[in-house]
Amino acid sequence: MPGVSAILTAAGESTRMGRPKPLLPWLGVTLVEYQVRSLIEGGASEVIVVLGHAAGDVSPYVKGTGVRAVLNPDYLRGRTTSIKAGLAAVDPSVEAIVLLAVDQPRTPAIVSRMISTHLDKDALITAPRYGGRGGHPIVFASSLRGELEAISEETEGIRAVFRKHQDEVNEVQVDDPMVQLDLNTFDDYERARETYGA
User: 0.85 cut: is pTM over it?
Assistant: First the structure.
């Protein structure tokens, strides 16, 4: 699917995990490699991986056609700074922008469904839902790029964009709790590995 850029944020300190999340083993590769592959196989034409903490250790694993790393020197100021660092590197001609964090493993099938549904419906924002709750990845039309570039920690990041366009969100019901998976702690990671055979 041409014209879809994915921003994979991987700059955090992984404080609660106790080790760099991008380098955690997941299905035979590092988590960052798995996420990049899922995004490419799911339909992204480019993947921008935003690095910060332990960037020198993680960068060798960021590779492939259409894949590149950017450094966020302000990563300690919050995830919004990583999203904005990624946006600055996105091809200006893309139709849509996918946002995903490295600690939210998603299959290529989930990514593909979000991207294809978003493009088919010419949606403004597309987000998965499971069990009445929202999940990730989230896809934004390129027309929202300016609003995304203006997000801040003070306004709760992309939540501000969601609130402004809450009646225009294309909600996709997904029969897979993985859309809500978030590896915050090592216990979360161990449980997820057991659940998903990772």
Answer: yes
